[in-house]
């Protein structure tokens, strides 16, 4: 379990996250939604220990960061490192010994090719494979579906559901509401750094409608397209 | 085009300021260092013009990176793009050309000039997707990537070792030996993304020890054959070879702890000064390394609790 109490994050005078209180349990999938700049990525970085913050993040996993598989929105790849070596690097980092990566190469990635030459979707799939091989207990996935083809989207959804069955904790952000609808048990809505709403599965449709209305409003009409 | 070069001057200025140097002072220091290195190289070895040309080409290669050139192509007309590339390469090459001409290395100077113009005109893009094999694939990433970037320097060092034996020049042998170490040091110049430190299931101390152990092990692959060859052919100098081996390893450790002592920032002017002092008096490293090790632990604490 991860418990966040009164989490506040500031960059200089700018408050990016304000008094966030959340709880993430084992065997559950949590969605974090909000506009660009709402604070989703910052929240993920705080939970992972990549950012300093005010407040408290508690967990029975100690240190929490060693149990987290973090998928960044735009995973970074060194130039001249192959897919296989990237997997090896991240497995070595967590002292996981794997001899044959080909067996678990479920996205059929060209592992002997430099990862920096991969397409956006392939890079994301490689990063996902790496954190899965690390056998983490908590998964923080920042936009896992971004740039990924439809077939792989389906695999990612299946993976998330399988991890849930294995009693892992999953925290996901996505701009594609349907993917959250398929996977999440609970969705938290962030707005300008504040947690404004928590919605249970039965109310996801309502939340989607509300978000559509707020997001679109009469903005398109204002453009006066002709 | 003028705006482009003004922007480049601004960017270079920012880079120097980031490491705590005024741009004009930095350029003067670089020029002095280049002149000093050239004089030293010309005094010590007949391969000086090749060393200088290699150095110039490594800078030119940086400017010829595919992504950078494709970006320039998209924003400038094709003739303007080529003009910019030629001017850029010439600005970089001219100091080296002056030195080569000063030391009467006319052939090397002409070759360097020609190559720098070819690199400006020809795109380095290749559809040939070839992965350079490396013996370091089991423990990425520093040596894995570094080897692929600088792989051509290793055979060069080995050729120098062979030449040193055939002409009975021990100093050249030591130079080839140190060349491999210098190549290894370059693998630790830049800090990696925080994610790759954060990922480690280790505290700062064990993380640093792991990095040092890996570096010492992996550096041995190519250093040891040269050390053994030199020891065999110059048996009377075996202690000197051993001494240089120890110094090489010690500097390698220095570069690792220096890198993390400023992490996530790049190595700064202070570490540069320490390095300069250590080159003149290596035993100082025995004091400096533990200090930088402690400093590194503190700098890594926020990622590796």
Under CATH, the homologous superfamily of chain A reads P-loop containing nucleotide triphosphate hydrolases
The CATH architecture of chain A comes to: 3-Layer(aba) Sandwich
Beta fraction of chain B: under 5%
User: Cα-atom Rg of chain B, whole angstroms?
Assistant: 21 Å
Which segments of chain A are poorly predicted (pLDDT under 50) over 5 or more consecutive residues?
A: none
CATH level 3 topology of chain A: Rossmann fold
The beta-strand count of chain A equals 9
Structural Rg of chain A:
18 Å
- Roughly how many Å apart are the termini of chain B? 49 Å
Count of domains of chain A: 1
Determine and state the CATH class of chain A.
Answer: Alpha Beta
The share of residues in helices of chain B is over 70%
Q: What is the number of helical segments of chain A per DSSP (H or I, 4+ residues)?
A: 7
Class from secondary-structure proportions of chain A: alpha/beta
Task: Describe what you observe in this structure.
- With 226 residues, chain A is of the alpha/beta class.
- In chain A, 33% of the residues lie in helices and 26% in strands.
- Chain A contains seven helices and nine strands, in the order βββαββααβαβαββαα.
- Chain A has helices at 40-48, 83-93, 120-133, 150-165, 177-183, 204-216, 219-222, and strands at residues 2-11, 14-24, 29-33, 54-59, 68-71, 138-142, 169-173, 186-191, 194-200.
- In chain A, strands 5-6-7-3-8-9 form a six-stranded mixed beta sheet, sandwiched between helices.
- In chain A, helix 2 (83-93) packs parallel to helix 3 (120-133).
- Chain A is globular, with a radius of gyration of 18 Å.
- In chain B, helix 3 (48-63) runs antiparallel to helix 5 (78-102) and helix 9 (170-186) runs parallel beside helix 12.
- Chain B has helices at 2-18, 23-44, 48-63, 66-75, 78-102, 106-121, 142-150, 153-166, 170-186, 194-198, 204-233, 238-261, 269-280, 285-304.
- Chain B has two domains: 1-127, no CATH class; 129-305, no CATH class.
- Chain B is globular and about 55 Å long.
- Chain B is mainly α.
- The interface between A and B is medium-sized, with 30 and 24 residues.
């Amino acid at each position: 379990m991860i418990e966040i109490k009164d989490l506040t994050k500031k960059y200089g005078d700018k408050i990016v996250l304000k008094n966030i209180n959340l709880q993430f349990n084992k065997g559950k999938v949590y969605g974090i939604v909000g506009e660009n700049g709402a604070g989703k990525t910052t929240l993920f970085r705080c939970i992972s220990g990549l950012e300093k913050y005010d407040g408290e993040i508690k967990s029975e996993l100690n240190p929490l960061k060693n149990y987290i598989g973090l998928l960044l929105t735009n995973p970074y790849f060194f130039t001249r490192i192959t897919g296989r070596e990237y997997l090896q690097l991240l497995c070595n980092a967590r002292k996981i010994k794997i001899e044959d990566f080909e067996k678990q190469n479920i996205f059929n990635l060209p592992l002997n090719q430099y990862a920096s030459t991969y397409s956006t979707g392939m890079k994301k799939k490689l990063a996902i494979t790496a954190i899965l091989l690390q056998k983490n207990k908590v998964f923080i996935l920042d936009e896992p579906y971004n740039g990924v083809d439809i077939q792989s989207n389906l695999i990612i959804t299946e993976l998330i559901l399988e991890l849930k069955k294995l009693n892992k904790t999953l925290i996901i952000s996505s701009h594609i509401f349907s993917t959250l609808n398929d996977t999440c048990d609970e969705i938290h809505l962030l707005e300008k750094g504040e947690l404004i709403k928590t919605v249970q599965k039965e109310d996801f449709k309502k939340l989607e409608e509300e978000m559509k209305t707020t997001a679109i409003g009469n903005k398109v009409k204002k453009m006066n397209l002709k | 085009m003028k705006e482009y070069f003004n922007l480049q001057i601004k960017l270079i200025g920012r880079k120097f300021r980031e490491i705590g140097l005024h741009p004009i002072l930095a350029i003067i220091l670089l020029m002095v260092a280049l002149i000093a290195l050239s004089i030293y190289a010309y005094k010590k070895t007949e391969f000086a013009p090749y060393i200088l040309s290699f150095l110039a080409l490594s800078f030119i290669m940086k400017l010829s990176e595919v992504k950078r050139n494709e970006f320039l192509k998209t924003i400038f007309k094709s003739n303007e793009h080529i003009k910019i590339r030629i001017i850029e390469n010439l600005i970089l090459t001219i100091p080296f050309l002056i030195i080569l001409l000063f030391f009467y290395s006319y052939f090397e100077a002409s070759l360097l000039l020609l190559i720098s113009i070819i690199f400006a005109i020809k795109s380095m893009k290749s559809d040939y997707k070839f992965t350079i094999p490396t013996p370091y694939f089991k423990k990425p990433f520093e040596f894995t990537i570094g080897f692929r970037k600088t792989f051509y320097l290793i055979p060069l060092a080995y050729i120098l070792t062979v030449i040193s034996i055939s002409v009975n020049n021990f100093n050249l042998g030591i130079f080839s030996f140190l060349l491999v170490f210098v190549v290894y040091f370059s693998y630790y110049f830049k800090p990696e993304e925080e994610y790759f430190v954060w990922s480690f299931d280790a505290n700062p101390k064990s993380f640093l020890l792991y990095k040092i152990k890996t570096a010492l092990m992996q550096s041995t692959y190519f250093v040891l054959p040269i050390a053994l060859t030199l020891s065999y052919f110059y048996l009377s100098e075996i202690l000197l070879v051993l001494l240089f081996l120890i110094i090489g390893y010690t500097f390698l450790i220095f570069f690792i702890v220096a890198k993390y002592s400023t992490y996530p920032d790049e190595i700064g002017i202070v570490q540069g000064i320490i390095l300069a002092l250590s080159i003149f008096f290596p035993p100082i490293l025995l004091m400096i390394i533990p200090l930088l090790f402690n400093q590194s632990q503190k700098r890594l604490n926020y990622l590796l609790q």
